[in-house]
């Protein structure tokens, strides 16, 4: 059966660790593994605008010896005259893998169903699993073993980053805290899934409404934009609802001494985070952004190897 990566818990704790180990190796030697030499092509499809995802996948595929085929759905039949499953059946005969940055999770699931090449979720409304691999890699580099680390995600807990932190953090054996107001909490199903994973890995999952309580004593403080793509018409409401979750120096001061700050970018300085924090000594956002390259390369290498076995 073809292995895909559509959400963070599509891989086991051991598999997650294996991918992160490989990412560290590829960061030390970018061209050590080249399974796409030929070059083989990887289709990278975008429904949404992108900087880090587009650059890191294009560069990473080239590093692995392959050729990235960047496709905009605005200039293709996908989502218009053609279904995701039909598009996948066309692409699978010509490409080694399919990467898709989209809106609905259901489209990714449809594309992966019965597809003979791996499908990778490069972002959906529900999850952002490639970003989480990069984030876990960054935490591991700066703080050591992931198991037992405590992190707090502040803001819109129902966004793809909040939900992916629950699943990926629990898979890594971390203690994950989500602080958000009513109406911005992760789905009950994702919380239940993460809780079940944490019970097996020694991690934990906790939901908070008070950001100060959530941040107290944690190792890593994380936030994300309050106005994600597709939510622009809700900006005024969101800024009002989420204002108390802004990460500033005072809030960072409640975290463990030496705690780190993370943000997947792009950031709205002055809204979800103040400039002195995101540009300050506790911030590791640039390592986090770079690690998209290494983590995604490792993921592709791992998926290709799994599907060749």
Automatic annotation (TrEMBL):
Binding of L-ornithine, residues: 160, 224, 228-229
Keyword Acetylation: no
Protein name: Ornithine carbamoyltransferase
A GO MF term: amino acid binding
Record flagged with keyword Cytoplasm: yes
Family indicated by similarity: Belongs to the aspartate/ornithine carbamoyltransferase superfamily. OTCase family.
Matches recorded under SUPFAM superfamilies: Aspartate/ornithine carbamoyltransferase
Domain Aspartate/ornithine carbamoyltransferase carbamoyl-P binding, chain residue ranges per copy: 3-141
Keywords: Cytoplasm, Transferase
Chemical reaction(s) catalysed: carbamoyl phosphate + L-ornithine = L-citrulline + phosphate + H(+)
HAMAP family named in the record: OTCase
GO biological process: citrulline biosynthetic process; L-arginine biosynthetic process via ornithine
Binding-site positions, carbamoyl phosphate: 50-53, 77, 101, 128-131, 264-265, 292
PROSITE patterns hit by this protein: CARBAMOYLTRANSFERASE (PS00097)
UniProt superkingdom: Bacteria
Biological or metabolic pathway of the protein: Amino-acid biosynthesis; L-arginine biosynthesis; L-arginine from L-ornithine and carbamoyl phosphate: step 1/3
Pfam family, one: OTCace
Record-listed E.C. numbers: 2.1.3.3
Subcellular location(s) of the protein: Cytoplasm
A GO cellular component annotation in the UniProt record: cytoplasm
Annotated ranges, domain Aspartate/ornithine carbamoyltransferase Asp/Orn-binding: 148-303
């Amino acid at each position: 059966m073809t292995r895909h990566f559509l959400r963070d818990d599509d891989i086991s704790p051991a598999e997650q660790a294996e991918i992160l180990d490989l990412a560290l190796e590829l960061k030390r030697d970018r061209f050590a593994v080249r399974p796409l030499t030929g070059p083989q092509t990887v289709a990278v499809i975008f429904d949404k605008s992108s900087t880090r995802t587009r650059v890191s996948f294009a560069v990473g595929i080239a590093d692995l010896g392959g050729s990235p085929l960047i496709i905009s759905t605005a200039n293709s039949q996908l989502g218009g005259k053609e279904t995701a499953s039909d598009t996948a059946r066309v692409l699978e005969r010509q490409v080694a893998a399919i990467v898709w940055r989209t809106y609905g999770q259901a489209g990714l699931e449809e594309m992966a169903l019965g597809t003979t090449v791996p499908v990778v979720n490069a972002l959906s409304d529900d999850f952002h699993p490639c970003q989480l691999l990069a984030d876990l890699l960054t935490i591991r580099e700066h703080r050591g073993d992931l198991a037992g680390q405590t992190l707090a995600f502040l803001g819109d807990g129902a966004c793809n980053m909040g939900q992916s932190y629950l699943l990926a953090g629990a898979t890594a054996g971390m203690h994950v805290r989500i602080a958000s107001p009513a109406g911005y909490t992760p789905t009950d199903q994702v919380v239940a899934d993460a809780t079940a994973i944490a019970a097996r890995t020694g991690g934990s999952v906790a939901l908070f409404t008070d950001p100060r309580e959530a941040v107290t004593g944690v190792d890593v403080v994380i936030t994300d934009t309050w106005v994600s793509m597709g939510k622009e018409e809700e900006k005024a409401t969101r800024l009002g609802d989420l204002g108390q979750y802004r990460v500033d120096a005072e809030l960072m001061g409640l975290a463990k001494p030496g705690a780190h700050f993370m943000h997947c970018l792009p950031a709205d300085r002055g809204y979800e985070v103040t400039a002195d924090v995101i540009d300050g000594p506790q911030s590791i956002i640039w390592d986090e952004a770079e690690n998209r390259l290494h983590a995604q390369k490792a993921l592709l290498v791992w998926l290709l190897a799994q599907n060749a076995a």
